[in-house]
Amino acid sequence: MGVKNIIKKELSRVFTDKKLVISLFILPGVLIMVIYSIMGGLISKLEEDIDTHIPIVYIQNAPEDFKHTIDSIEYIGEIDYLSSSDSTEPVKDGILKGDIDLLVVFDEGFKQTIQDYSQPGDLIPEVRTFYNPSEEYSVAARGEFLSSVLNTYQQNLLVERIDNIELLQVFNIDIDPDKSIIVDESKASGKFLAMLLPFLMNIMLFQGAMGLGMDSITGEKERGTLASMLLSPIKRSEIVLGKLISLGILTGLSAVIYTVSVAIGLQNLSGGMGDIGSIKFTPVQMVQLFVLLIFLVYIYVSMVSLVAVYARTQKEAGTYVTPLYILVMLGSIMTMFSPGGSKETMHYAIPIYNGTITIQDLLVGELTMANFGITIGSLALLAFLITTCITKAFNSERVMFNA
Amino acid sequence: MIEIKELTKIYKLTKKQMMERKTKKNMMKAVDNISLIASPGEIYGLLGPNGAGKTTALRCIATLLKPTQGSITVGGYDTVKESKNVRKKIGFLTNEIKLDPQFSPKYMLNFFGKLHGLDDETIEKRREELFEYFEIKGFENKKIDELSSGMKQKASIAVSLVHDPEIVIFDEPTTGLDIVTARNVTDYLKLLRDKGKTVIISTHIMTEAEKLCDRIGIIIKGNLVLEGSLDEIIKETNSNDLEDAFFELYKIHNKEGA
After folding, report:
1. Which of A251, A238, A231, A106 is nearest to B63 (CA)?
2. CATH number for the domain harbouring residue B98
3. Which domain holds residue B227?
4. For chain B, how many structural domains are there in total?
5. Which band of pLDDT confidence, cut at 50, 70 and 90, is reported for residue B258?
6. How far apart are CA A403 and CA B65, in angstroms?
7. Rounded to a whole number, what is the distance in angstroms from the first to the last CA of chain B?
8. Distance (Å, rounded) from C-alpha B203 to C-alpha B55?
9. CATH 3.40.190 domain span(s) along chain A
10. b/e map of A215-244 (b: 16 or more CB within 10 Å)?
11. Tell me, what DSSP letter sits at residue B65?
């Protein structure tokens, strides 16, 4: 009875306050959406830009038949030919500055050296490429030039030397590479989101819990409104539960809004990588995700509340909560640089971190029931411990009344 | 009925508090071995200067603080062992405990009525009565934040009395109120007394104690130095009025151990 009334009051406190609704839910949602759609748009534009960019390539000592190869494969690029007497320094300078994408230098007498080859140990000429790995255009230009132009040219020369090139081939690998790719579409796009989403969800859940929890507990303590509740004939644990559950509902709601905003914002990303709709969940997975999120929300809310209940002022609470925030960040960031699945069972017993890896496993479809169970078990234990601590604090006159 | 037996309350001081108080002792005795009885149908007043221990004593009665030594029973229930039952029976008002400024007096009254386990009908009836008496009706739906301090205090009083408590504990109930509202409040306390409720208040206003309280306990530096009706106190101290009596006692007891 007490719990229900407190939840009702806490929720109406937020939802009857237009300013609070805007600052908690609407504004962050819109901001996140805008930020991510700008980010997604920029990434797509960058990829598109590299694809359409016409590479600027300088070639020194190009053999006559090399030019034919370039023409015959219809290589798209702005090519300038240099003779052996031209200096390559200005070109290298241009590559460094990013004005020029690639310099290809054939050894002098390249063709002659090849033709003179007769037995092992004879000189083999070299083609050197100069490029700038920090320039996207340059990297792309070199890759394209190696695979399409130089490769073809090398094949042509081989044919000239030994009529039957198949003698060298022995076997083929993937004549039709497209057919070789066996991929679960939802898993592939899941991989990308599995990197980003657990991190985002964790951070957003915690952030929501942070603002709300500090106001609802330390704020009420400061304003003297919490004490009025302590005077009513209900158990302290009922007040704690009422507070935590209502905070959980609000935090969960804000996390849903934030995540949906990210999803909408990321839809601009090319290749469907940001398409959250491409992740397919089985009903079991959906239930798992739901249960996990409920536990995570409760843990974060109670962590913040524990800190908030000991703080005398909201400012103090802000200071105390920062290390927790960093802890949650750390736990979430770790998943960004590790692939989903195949973790040691032990990892699933580490609270907070297990939340992120479980979300990650879910997104790539590799969560086992055992690991899920361990995660929920350890989170439930932590939730119980923290709730007990908070109730103890509510019973302490020193904490509540500074006495 | 409130029965306090040898109540002592000691606060542990933090280093910061020790510095602020310029003391090397890490303990502070806020209330020192007080015993008193407040009976139904009377208004008992704790009179004393700021920091004498009045609020601490009242908070112990209201179950918010636990006695370091001694015990308190309220309506037959022990404040430590049966605190929930005690809270059912009391209405407690103090300056530091406030109503959520974002809600209206009506909402708060309903909320606390429900926490006290009252049904909607009873709450409605109580609201009619209390809001009528304290003239809250005109602003019952306004946010508490938007009310004047007098209105806020009246709303707090009404909310603290929603469950028609047997025992009323008011900590400086008229502080910050204008003369009309203060009179309104003290009149209501008399009304409660006449209904047979046990009323205990704290005050440092002599006239309030004189006019309102049936019995007065003078508390100085945590000690209950004298207790009795106004006449008894004046007679005991051989003075003309309560103020003289108080200063007579203050001179004696403030020196001791200072």
Report:
1. A231
2. 3.40.50.300
3. 2-256
4. 1
5. very low
6. 8
7. 34
8. 10
9. 53-180
10. bbbbbbbbbebbbbbbbbbbebbbbbbbbb
11. S
Indicate the pTM of the whole model: 0.77
pLDDT given for residue A106 in this prediction? 92
CB within 8 Å: B64 and A2: no
Domain A53-180: which topology?
D-Maltodextrin-Binding Protein; domain 2 (3.40.190)
Distance CA(B122)–CA(A89), nearest Å, equals 94
- CA-nearest residue of chain A to B86? A233
pLDDT at B22 over 80: no
Alpha-carbon gap: B245 to the closest alpha carbon of chain A (Å): 32
C-beta atoms of A398 and B116 within 8 A: no
Residue A61: both structure tokens together: 């000592």
Backbone angles phi, psi at B5, to 5 degrees: -115, 115
Instruction: Give, to the nearest 10 degrees, the angle between helix A27-52 and helix A136-144.
Output: 40
Question: Could you tell me which residues of chain B have a Cβ less than 8 Å from any Cβ in chain A?
Answer: 11-12, 56, 59, 62-66, 84-85, 87-88, 90, 92, 96-103, 107, 111-112, 114-117, 159
* Residue B7, min C-alpha distance to chain A (Å): 16
Which position has the higher pLDDT, A23 or B203? B203
Count of other CB atoms within 10 angstroms of residue B229: 13
Higher-pLDDT residue of A175 and A7 is: A7
